[in-house]
Amino acid sequence: MDAQVSAGARAPAAEEAAIDASEFRSFAGHFATGVAVVTARGAAGDLSGVTINAVTSLSLDPPLYLVCLDNSSNTLGLLRETRAFALHFLARDQAAISRLFASKRPDKFSGIIYAIGETGSPIIDGVLAAAECVVTELTAMGDHTIVIGEVRSTRVNGGEPLLYHRGAYAVLDSAPD
Ligand SMILES: Cc1cc2nc3c(=O)[nH]c(=O)nc-3n(C[C@H](O)[C@H](O)[C@H](O)COP(=O)(O)O)c2cc1C
């Protein structure tokens, strides 16, 4: 018999132990990404935001975006209440904003210029682009939750992106062709 895997058979790799967290982080860190911030407003009007890079466009029709949030995220808690969020892509001079929203500070919006959008989520000023989304699905997966949002509106300001690679911020050193 050749090397085909028959129905129901498990590949040998599936029997092996899972990798540890540092190996996972090292692997994942080699994928260069932009930096995004998800913001949400809770039912009581409280605001929160979280820096993320687990984000991807999911569908054009309907227009869907997917983000992955740690189950312990305060922002995830607020987003669950109102089922809406805003997604921002940060500009090259916004590493400080990324650090702020990567913290657990309760007052993350105190020094931030923002406006409340039509879906109720806070929209941060000066970003490359922002989208308002309504939550269509929340799926717990491991220690994170997959959040799928339908994009209701976008604002595109343009500019150069903030990048993240191997645990450090970076910027483009040349404009694309
Ligand atoms: C570059 C970068 C990317 C991150 N990506 C994610 C992510 O995709 N999902 C996530 O839940 N946390 C991510 N984090 C960690 C959160 O920003 C951090 O846990 C934050 O304190 C959560 O805030 P909150 O609990 O107020 O929502 C990332 C942090 C950094 C600096």
Explain what you see.
- By secondary structure, the protein is mainly beta.
- It has a domain of 92 residues: Pnp Oxidase, Chain A, CATH 2.30.110.10.
- Helices cover 14% and strands 40% of the residues.
- The protein has 3 helices and 12 strands; from the N terminus they run αβββββαβαββββββ.
- The longest helix is centred in the first third of the chain and has 9 residues.
- The radius of gyration is 19 Å and the shape is globular.
- 27% of the residues are buried.
- Bound molecules: flavin mononucleotide (FMN).
- The site of flavin mononucleotide (FMN) has 18 residues, from strand 3, strand 5 and helix 2.
In the sheet with the most strands, the strands line up as 3-2-6-9-10-5-4
CATH class of the domain at 34-53 and 73-133 and 154-164: Mainly Beta
SSE class: mainly beta
Order of secondary-structure elements: HEEEEEHEHEEEEEE
Helix content: 10-25%
The profile of the biggest β sheet is: 7 strands, antiparallel
Total of DSSP H or I helical runs spanning 4+ residues:
3
The fourth-level CATH homologous superfamily of the domain at 34-53 and 73-133 and 154-164 is: Electron Transport, Fmn-binding Protein, Chain A
- CATH topology of the domain at 34-53 and 73-133 and 154-164: the name is Pnp Oxidase, Chain A
What fraction strand? Answer: 35-45%
Low-confidence stretches: 1-9
Q: Which architecture of the domain at 34-53 and 73-133 and 154-164 per CATH?
A: Roll
Bound molecules: flavin mononucleotide
Morphology call: globular
